[in-house]
Amino acid sequence: MDCQKHLFSLPNNVHYLNCARKGPLLKSAEEKGIEAIKRDRNPDQISTEDFFSVQEDVRHLFADIVNCAPSQIALLPSTSYGFASVLKNVKAKPSGNAIMVKGEFPSGYFAVNRWADSNGNELRTIEPDSDLKRVGRDWNKRILSSIDHDTSVVLISAIHWMTGVKFDLKTIGEKCSEIGAILVVDGTQAVGASPIDVQECKIHALICAGYKWLFGPYSTALGYFGQGFEQGEPIEESWMNRTNSRLFSELTDYEDSYYPDAGRYNVGQTSNFILMPMLREGLRQITAWTPEGIQEYCSKLTRPLKLYMDSIGSIYEDEEYFADHLFSFHLPESVDQEKLKLQLQEDDISISVRGDSIRISINVFNDPADIEALIASIDRIMRKTVNDLYPFEPIP
Q1: What's the rounded Cα separation, in Å, for the pair 25 and 216?
Q2: In the 8-state DSSP scheme, what is residue 324?
Q3: If you placed Cys at 176, which of 15, 183, 371, 394 could pair as Cys (CB 3.0 to 4.6 Å)?
């Protein structure tokens, strides 16, 4: 795959290496949004079928990406909404426990923390050895050893949103299946940019925000609700989730039965005539590129960056736990983080600086010039650091 920047509206002078913060809109998605806004000028143009057709496309596209049936996909407004919907239907084991990792995104933490408090379960937060810089192997071992027969639910991201550390979902899923625990995965920072198979990983529920790696607009999210959730109770009672919702003339013939499978968990107003066409466009493009193709492209971009980081003594994850689209580097202690932030800003480079590490998140809109600019920016700081530590003194 070649660089796809021509499909976006990113300025040529800006090096956007921060897709984990928010993905840029595709030009085609922007056009769909504008078309939808214009159509709202005259609602008479909106047919009954328009209330349902686009959302059905979205379900099918996302189902293909994560390998499940379209009926198992719910349309959501956010990950927090999705987690609440899932956990409302997770049965607690008596005196059991819930498991999450340290530094999980707040939406996941608050959801599982409330569930544990409400159900008399202990919340176990698993963290790696604090003395390690490469934590992937140790962290995954600790997660697996913490899952026991008293574990009710494991809520975990596919990769850590701050560091990019990959969690072994397949092995975690097998362990959960063995002991009867529910595996809930936050796929926000992985789905779309890297392959995830909910069947292979034995994931019970997968929740994913739409505005990052799916190239959708804000206030969109998608959820996979697997086996065991088909008869669950949603957190709201939308008329659109009922089996007679397409029969507008019969809506007051109140129908208690929901759409099959995950349809009951849809947020109200799923038609969302402006946002849904934009999300569909992002999913269509990802399907054309494929997550495998995106990951392969990102892998090519990271190679020279890794070589440079090796040359300055930077530390990063072992290959097995390194995601090529979202990753972090521990910089030498001598690097002044504030000076680095100013240098990056001066060079129009957008990444995330966190403590002694930098988080970089790339996609198909990036090219070698973006990586070269980042290397040059860090190198300037490294040279300034050397000069500060060992100032040149003229020979008398």
Answers
A1: 7
A2: S
A3: 183
In 288-383, at which residue ranges do the beta strands (DSSP E only) sit?
326-330, 349-350, 352-354, 357-361
66 neighbors 283 (Cβ within 8 angstroms): no
Sheet containing 97-101: give its strands across. 73-76, 221-225, 205-209, 182-186, 151-157, 97-101, 122-126
Domains belonging to the chain, first-starting first, are 5-19+290-389 (3.90.1150.10), 27-289 (3.40.640.10)
User: In a 3-state reduction of DSSP, which class is residue 54?
Assistant: helix
**What's the pTM?**
0.93
pLDDT digits (tens, 9 = 90+) for 99-144: 999 999 999 999 999 999 999 999 999 999 989 999 999 999 999 9
- Give the number of other CB atoms < 10 A from CB of residue 53: 14
Tens of pLDDT, residues 209-238: 999 999 999 999 999 999 999 999 999 998
Number of residues in the chain: 396
